[in-house]
From TrEMBL:
Catalyzes the oxidation of 5,10-methylenetetrahydrofolate to 5,10-methenyltetrahydrofolate and then the hydrolysis of 5,10-methenyltetrahydrofolate to 10-formyltetrahydrofolate. Belongs to the tetrahydrofolate dehydrogenase/cyclohydrolase family. This is Bifunctional protein FolD. InterPro entries: Aminoacid_DH-like_N_sf, NAD(P)-bd_dom_sf, THF_DH/CycHdrlase, THF_DH/CycHdrlase_cat_dom, THF_DH/CycHdrlase_CS, THF_DH/CycHdrlase_NAD-bd_dom. It comes from Nguyenibacter vanlangensis. Coiled coil: none annotated. NADP(+) binds at residues 180-182, 205, 246.
């Protein structure tokens, strides 16, 4: 028996998204920063210094700490790690931040979030001198971003924006959907995309139909911390997908692996371009932290060397 040709189902359009190689982009950026750190040292005899404060233990933060120390040294900067027990009091943490604020060898301060229960992240991030707030999370830098004034921009959203601009060029007029409205990623990401001329929608925990919202995005940035939340059918065909999530899961074999907030295999079949996890946004966050630390050192040291002048 032969079937009429017309009854043969058309093959499903087999698309496969292009991978956005954040790891390679970050490596090139780190190399450039290393050269600039060298030139900065030649001019001022100062090595940019970054202080990282980790209170208690959070799995995502531990991945960050490991890679950050390595990359900081690769860029020729100094890193000062402060690991405090989960029992640290608010007063003790604030005292450390003040000490780092006054330390001339430190140009950037980063307090890893989330903090253990009982510590107030707003009070702590606001205690960091705005010039040293390389995470850009304090009210001065967050306010500058909201007002479109120059300031320090949070590392993860900055890294996402760099990838988007390098992939797509001008973003003006594109509909960008951000899933997740955290102060760390979602809110500053939305501000940056707005400043690029995107039409921006932000979905969050109370959004009624996040899949329908996500499907409108020419650009889809996902930062929820819920591994595999975004399924293939949430994605507009051909969209550019930036996956910020990083969750460690244990496989049946007992091994662990990192997954993103996007169900990768499903998304690859629909998206035009997508960042992998690992190797996507994570390395960009670190490269942008180095970038922000060098910029902070330039601002602090340059202003002291050339008071009242333009750097
Ligand atoms: N104040 C603050 N600022 C942050 O930016 C911040 C934070 N707190 N708390 C924790 C999260 C998490 N985070 C990561 C950054 C890079 C990687 C990273 O390098 N990821 C590699 C991991 C590779 C691997 O080790 O297997 C990758 O995705 O390829 C991971 C996680 C920054 N965070």
């Amino acid at each position: 028996m032969t079937e009429p040709v017309s009854a043969v189902p058309a093959p499903a359009p087999s698309m496969s998204a292009r991978l956005i190689d954040g790891k390679a982009f970050a490596a090139a950026m780190t190399q450039r920063i290393a050269a600039e750190v060298h030139a900065f040292h030649d001019r001022y005899r100062v090595t940019p210094g970054l202080a990282v404060v980790l209170v208690g233990n959070d799995p995502a933060s531990e991945v960050y700490v490991r890679n950050k120390a390595l990359q900081t040294h690769r860029a020729g900067m100094r890193s000062f790690m402060h690991m405090l027990p989960a029992t640290t009091s608010q007063a003790e943490l604030l005292a450390l931040v003040r000490r780092l604020n006054d330390d001339p060898e430190i140009h950037g301060i980063l307090v890893q979030l989330p903090l253990p229960a009982g510590l107030d992240p707003v009070a702590v991030t606001n205690a960091i001198r705005p010039e040293k707030d390389v995470d850009g999370l304090g009210e001065v830098n967050a306010g500058r971003l909201a007002l479109g004034q120059p300031g320090i921009v949070p590392c993860t959203p900055l890294g996402c924006l760099m990838l988007l601009k390098s992939e797509l060029g001008d973003l003006r007029g594109l509909h960008a959907v951000v899933i997740g409205a955290s102060n760390l990623v979602g809110k500053p990401m939305a501000q940056l995309l707005l400043a690029e001329g995107c039409t921006v929608s932000v979905g969050h925990i109370d959004t009624r139909d996040p899949a329908a919202l996500a499907r409108q995005g020419d650009i889809l940035v996902v930062a929820t911390g819920v591994g595999g939340l975004v399924r293939g059918d949430w994605i507009k065909p051909g969209a550019t997908v930036i996956d910020v999530g990083i969750t460690r899961v244990t496989l049946p074999s007992g091994k662990t692996r990192l997954i993103g907030d996007v169900a990768f295999d499903e998304a690859v079949a629909r998206a035009g371009r997508i960042t992998p996890v690992p190797g996507g946004v994570g390395p960009m966050t670190i490269a942008c932290l180095l970038n922000n630390t060098l910029a902070a050192a330039r601002q602090i040291v340059g202003a002291a060397a050339d008071p009242g002048g333009t750097p």
